[in-house]
Records
---
Amino acid sequence: MHEMALSESVLQSIERSARADGFARVLSVHLEIGALAGVDAEAMRFSFDAVSRGTLAEDARLEISRVPGEAWCLPCGHTVQIANRFDPCPECGSHQLQVTGGQDMLLKSLEVA
Amino acid sequence: MCTVCGCGEGEVSMESHTHGEHAHAHSHEHAHEHDHSHGHEGLHDYGQGPAHAHAPGLSQARMVEIEENILGKNNEYAGANRRWLREHGVLALNLVSSPGSGKTTLLTRTISDLAADADLPVAVIEGDQQTANDAERIRATGATALQINTGKGCHLDGHMVGHAIETLAPEDDSLLFVENVGNLVCPAAFDLGENHKVVILSVTEGEDKPLKYPDMFAAADLMLINKIDLLPYLDFDLDACIENARKVNPGIRVLSVSATTGEGMGAWYEWIRAARQFARVGS
């Protein structure tokens, strides 16, 4: 349940941004979660709802977009999409994949008032 | 509230190794603020908001671009730890596993066996939600140890470990073990600045654990399969376990050990010495 810690982190970024930009209320929060980031979107909604109560982001809409996992296959040289870390290369079946994308969670933007 | 950690600052406590029982909730005053530029151009142009409204009373909603990695702050702390460790020639190993895999037993045996090597002082950072039991077990071996209690937190983060390193002050060219909270999920995401994550899996667990918890096995450089003295009594497929780990992480190295009988532990010590040499050479 490290989503709780991540939600705290999101809230801190929002509060820093609010001090810098002078907004008082957040209407929506746009997060981008990689398929291989180890972050569960539903757990994220649950914990963000909990940590944002009584803050400037209370009742903010959480918009979550997903980024597919991307890997480079050493044997066949293709860049391929994978859903899990243990997936084989869809082109050649090898497990020798180097993950190149979809491992991060980003706070993309805020809609504020 | 700690920067990346979800636990309240009153919940995380770190014992001081000179004051035994005296755990304190440390304050988090330093360096939590920094001047970020989030690209504010146009932010005060109220006409640019989705409502395109200038009249007071109408919606003034607008978009603020952030583009920030949620783990960015933790990674900064981890980066600072990594720099410190490199400058002091300290090899830091982050031991991760489920609860009950035998991490602490493995660690106490390792410390006792390495004690003969006067050239390799050892310090330990112990992470658990509650109690200082594990740090006490480590201290009984003669090594320096510091307990971090994460309270409700499910992992150690770069910030907690930075403070622990400050307090412990490991000797130059020493070996620092960080025994993470027993959890195969959350600690995978939090870089501590360590040289390597070492994942420990005991044969009393399932051989499909690398597939069930792929992030941790992907993040680790070495897998120790522990309790192999119990293999005759169990239906555990060692080869399948290794094959599963390599599906997730083709480059992972694997050692089979028993911290109880000592079987295979020599190879583990060889690995530690080799890793230490790498840690001291170059930058």
---
Amino acid sequence: MSEYPAEAIPDQDNLYLRVHRNHFLRGEILSPAFKGHPPGALSTNWCKYSTPKEARAQGRQPPENYGVVGLRVGAVRKIPQQVVLHSPLPENRAHTDVRGPKGTDEVIDGFVAASTWKVRLGEPL
Amino acid sequence: MPLLEQPTKVAYAPPPIVFRATGHPTIGGLVVSRVAYPNVRRTSAALLSHVARSLLQDEIARSSWIVELGDDWDEAGSPGYAPETLDAAVTILRRLATLQEQRGSFLPVPKILPGLDGIVELRWRSQEWRLLMQVQPSGEATFYGQLTGTSVRGSLPADEQKLLDWIDSAIS
């Protein structure tokens, strides 16, 4: 149970998503980057409580293995069946889930189109 | 008179075909340059067809490594890709290219990419439009595209004509 309350996230805010180097190829973010763990629950950081570099540093692997993309909340909410849910953790107040099925063409296209690089792969720490 | 003098020795070997923004004919928004075709005497529909097929073939050849990805290739638990899935994607792509050419234009070359859960993905992206197609291990394919203000979705082969009509409007 988190000590932080869940808050409403405005449409104009950004969510930061770590993208592992294995999910970036030929200038494209691959679909598995948006799958989530467990499937359907995509973990991101809300910009109110996190910077892109902080999000990059929270992966299981060294930060140099990740880039970070920003996802505008309003754009994410327009992707079919996707729900943005602030779900703070004791160690990460920014933690936000994007819940919903991730496998359809329209959903994948929506996430790809909504992504903008905030920290590129290989960028200095 | 032949259109090309020994073109294949140039067209199918590195360095890749070079394009530049001039007044030359285009394929899917790209401009054919004589840099890669120094022996071209004149451009024509036959040459454009030749280049379009060459570009498509390059992409297909480039995608062959996808089937070498084993289970957990991304260290996130994703499964590998069956050769049959890639074959199905290539078959669909070749068919669409042929049908598009019969309509008098050329199918822009997509990127062939590893997708979710063993699916092979085809992605087209330009400034004005984008199209994503997923080919399942079963060989079934679905697609979704967006062009300013309009979208298209469906599955193949049922919605093939709808897809081709939409591509026509996107690239025209």
